[in-house]
Amino acid sequence: MSTITNPAELRRRGLELLVRELGYVDAMRFLHQYETGSGDYTRDRDQFLPAGSPDKLVKEADKLVPERQSDQGAPG
User: Are the CB atoms for 4 and 13 separated by under 8 Å?
Assistant: First the structure.
């Protein structure tokens, strides 16, 4: 399979594939799930991202993994 370098061709082929696989209505429903959004992520991210460095956040996440694995083995 070759790489599609033209953005218009990529959109056309992608839509064609979605319609073929999902049908027109479900393809349109799928596409409507994605919005451009608004605002300034760079300016606003500090308001909703947790404080700390990426390394600190990874260490905190790693602490949760054993807890989740032991929870999954417990009868519920």
Answer: yes
Each as own residue / partner, the long-range contacts of residues 11-17 (CB below 8 Å, 24 or more positions apart, any chain) are none
Helix axis angle for 24-31 and 7-22, nearest 10°, is 130
> Hey, where are the domains in the chain?
7-35+45-73
The type of residue at 51 is A
How far apart are alpha carbons 51 and 65 in whole angstroms? 20
Model confidence pLDDT, tens digit, residues 19-52:
999 999 999 999 988 877 788 888 888 888 877 8
Report the distance separating Cα 30 and Cα 33, nearest Å. 6
The four Cα atoms 64, 66, 68, 74 give a dihedral, to 10 degrees, of -150
